[in-house]
Amino acid sequence: MNFYKYFFLIFFSFISFGQNNFIGSVERLSVEVDKFIENDSKIEIIAKGFGWSEGPVWSNKLNALLFSDVPNNIIYKWNEKNGLSIFLNEIGYSGIVPNSKKTGTNGLTIDHKGNLIICMHGDRRVVKLNDWQSDKVIPIVTSYNNKLFNSPNDLVYNSKNELFFTDPPYGLKKGDQDELKELKFNGVFRLSPNGKLKLIIKNLSRPNGVAISNDEKTLYVANSDSKNPVIMKYQITEEGVISPEIFFDGSVLSKKDRGAFDGLKVHPSGTVFATGPGGVLLISSDGNHIGTIRTEVRTANCTFDTNYKYLYMTSSKFLTRIKLIN
Question: How many domains, in total, are found in the chain?
């Protein structure tokens, strides 16, 4: 991407501030939503101009939000004081492995030491940023049984420093039919602190967003397949996961609202904030859909800041947020 395109992306993001840039609404299906969102809270557009915004994560080290622009191969930074800036450029695809789609990073998370961990959509691996002051990355995991991953998509750590991540084929030009696809399945993996990699789920068509319950007993996985739009839950064990169960079935919603199940985050209350048909669904821990933050556009992922003051959402070409009750 050339200098002028960078300039206009930043410029148009900044000129929007100071105006009333709002979008969408909050659908309240239960009074439980009132515990999370005030009646007068609005969905605020805080930056715009992206190809497809994804993978938001809050960094305490930077006191800022980081997120991916997948098609444009950029990680952006946003904070209240300085607004939008480019954090890492040409990150996610470097050409070190075959990939004709050449997309950038996707899911981001922070490990127990405060390091940025990155799903490299284009380079088909998971890496760690070596130094917050540079663009050098260290591979964490690059293959399974000597076969390249499809395109690692989303990831989450538990308190044991085990990394769970999904590997759908969205980063390959022809998806499942791509001649560069080496794995016959689209899996969910667990990487132990000692470097041992284990395939824990292989029967989902499009495993995408992944999250862990607060008690760390349940793994949630979003399946972003229009033919089977569900969020699954599994019991986490020492060996992997057991007892697969549909946590939420979005078949009815997907027929009337745009968007597929994608990113997931778990609130301290246990409520799951799930991007999907219509925007961001609030689903109680018992699987009851209590409301939707209706973003009007397809929303890929979401995250909270440290104090759960805001929910930040990567919504198509926008970065949005809504104030929460905390």
Answer: 1
